[in-house]
Structures are given as C-alpha cells and as structure tokens.
Amino acid sequence: MRVRAHRFRAYSSKTTARVLKTQLEAACKLYNTLLHAEQEEYERNKRTMSRNELRQLALDLRKKNPEFQALHSQVAQQVAERFYQARERFLEGLANKSKNKKPHKFLSLVYPQSGWKLSNARDVGQGKSKKRKARLYLSKIGFFTLILHREFPESQVSQVCVKLEPSGRIHVIFLVEEPETQVQASKEPVKAVGVDLGIARLATLSDGRFLDNPRPLERALDRIRVLQRALSRKKFLSKNWLKAKRKLAKEHEHVKDFRRDLFFKLGALLAQEYDVLVLEDLNVQDLIQKGENKKRRLRLYDSSFSELRAVLEWQFVKRGKLVLPVPSYNTSRECFLCGEINKGLTLKDRVFHCPRCGFALDRDLNACLVLLRRAEWVPPGVPAKLRPLPPLPSLGLVRRGRQGWL
Asked: Distance (Å, rounded) from C-alpha 177 to C-alpha 156?
C-alpha cells in the first residue's frame, strides 16, 4: 500500500482557532515532557524507552495533567509517536538530536484513527464561483469548513492532520491508503520531450518551446527584507513580534504557492501532450555550492530545480507515463549532431557552436536534444527557433498588486 495526501483549505470561527492554538501549545508541552522523561531514563538506566512505553507514558501524563486532557487521547499518543520517529532518525544519522520544541513552531495535530467526522458535503455558488464545501468535526477542537477542490475516498482515510500555517491559514490533510499498483498507459509511448532546466529560462523543451524564469523570490526580496527588518525590531514572542512574523510568513507562503502552482500547471501541460519525459539528473546541492557569486546561488535556490523535477515526474507517473532520467554531464557542451565536446563554452555563451561540424544552435535547445539522444529517442526534427509556452496567465504568472508580475 502507498499513502497519498489530500490537502484542503479549512476555515473556522475565532473561538475554534483559539482552541486549536491552545491544543497546539499543550501538544508542544507534552512533547517536551516526553523528551525530558527520555533523558532522565537514559541517565538513570542507560536505556531508551520503546514506542509502546512512550505512548503509554503520554496517556498517563494526560490523565494526571488537566492541561493535557484538552487533547484527544489518540492525538496525545501521536505526539509520542512523533517523538519516537524523531529519535529513530537521530539514531540512524538522518537528523539532529531532538530538542525542546518552541510553541510557535509546533503547528500540527494528527488524528490517526478516530476523533474526526466529515459531513454535510454540498455544492455552493454558481458559475465560476461554484465550489464544493464540507463540514469537518475534530474532537476536542470543533468544526471546520473545508473547500473540497477534488474528490477522495473517505472510507480509505488512515489519518487526518490539521495544520496551522505560520501565516495563520489552516489546512487539513487526509492521508489515504491506495494499492501499490500503478496505472498503466493504454498505448505504447509515441512522443517524447526533453526538458533542460536553467536560470534564465526555467525550462526549455526539445520541441523549441520555453518558459521564462519568473524568479518569484528575487522579485519579492525587497518586500521580504522590509518585513524581516521590522520583525527584528520587535520584542521576541511579543504580540507585535507575532504579528510581524505572520506578515513575513504570508509573503514567503505566497512565493511558495506561486512557484508550486506554476510547476503543477507546467507538468500537467507536458503530461497531456507527451508520453515520455526525459530529464537531466542534476545534483542541485553541488550546483549551489559551486555558485560563482551570491546572486547566482540565490537564483538557483529560487528556481527550485529539485521541486520542479519532482512535480514533473509525479504528473507523468500519475498518468502511467514514462520518466527517463539521464546523466547531466556536459549536456550543454556536447554537439547534438556529432557528439563533439566544446570545451571553450562558458556560461555567457548562449549559442552553441560545434568546433568539428560547425553546427550552431541555442545552447539550451541543443542540451534538450542531447538529453533525448542519451535516452535513445530520436527527435522528429531540429526546431528552427525558440517560442514561448502558452500565454503566461494560463500558467499562473499574473499577480495583482504593486508587487505584481505581468
């Protein structure tokens, strides 16, 4: 079985939001109490507590402490499970040692089996404003209104997670268990596309189309700097500090949502038109570390190649189509026609010239064709010139306001 997450925006009353924040603080204190109990046990007996011992300790603490009784019993056990998983990752060398959690950073609660109920699903509005809403009840917290933008099997839900974002927005995530078998394509792959990722052009396709890099973080950097300076002047954990922190989180959240929206729409566009996706197997961390200057490293972070590649792969795999990663070494310097390496090519050179056969082509487009050849796919022809992807608004590149992109 594989687990798939369905995430929906949730709305609540001010009273329910306050109850949620109170329970998050209680869960944070319970986590820290378990951490101290684990440290004392190790100092006294030189052993660590097992998963069952931690879960039972969480229940015992809940019975004794009125503050912890505000939590649902299974939510309290899930806090113990979270601490156990963090400790196991540390012992395996995958994470740092667990430390005391800060209340303003403990932002999610999990209902693993029961304690939740989804009801009153209905369609509201008309035309473009038509939406599907539902009512979710979480035990010990209250009711939330969900915006259901897609269907999911309620009978197969294994966990429900309510998350309070740093910006103040609330999301509910349903974890659904699905069979491991993947959907197979109904026909043999016919069309393949090679995608070259870059900084100037976010994605260049082997058919000659390209998508300019909108650089959302770089464009919002001035606003982020102003908000960050305002936050640094506030007293830590004061009301004004929390307000300033929420404003900064909203700006970062918009950049993240803008980027993911663009990636998913690009992936859906390619997955509808092509059967095979050929990507270069980039080592993004190595590229960032070798960045010549601060600005280049910032643009590499802003481009988020790893996230873009993961989204593109997911869009193709979801439709039962093929994804072929190929080595990225010398893709920009290799000639598509004869395979000669142009060792004198630099980052400033935007046109590739082959020293052997004289072949000349845009360097990004040449790299796409090289990727296809390495994947043993022959393109139908070499595009004469580059052309942009469909109108930018359809790919989410319009933002209203003074900081907008057009």
From this structure: 6
DSSP character at residue 357: T
Residue 406 lies in a domain: no
Condensed to tens digits (0 to 9), the pLDDT of residues 322-358 reads 899 988 888 888 888 887 888 888 878 888 888 888 8
DSSP 110-146: EESSSSEEEEEEEEES-GGG-EEEEEEEETTTEEEEE
How many whole angstroms separate alpha carbon 361 and alpha carbon 351?
A: 6
145 and 23 belong to one structural domain: no
The range of the structural domain enclosing residue 160 comes to 2-6+112-178
Residues 208 and 138 in one domain: no
Q: What is the pLDDT of residues 202-218, one digit of tens each?
A: 999 988 899 989 899 99
Same structural domain, 48 and 162: no
393 pLDDT exceeds 70?
A: no
Listed residues 77, 109, 141: the one ending a domain: 109
Together in a domain, 158 and 304: no
Same domain for 105 and 116?
no
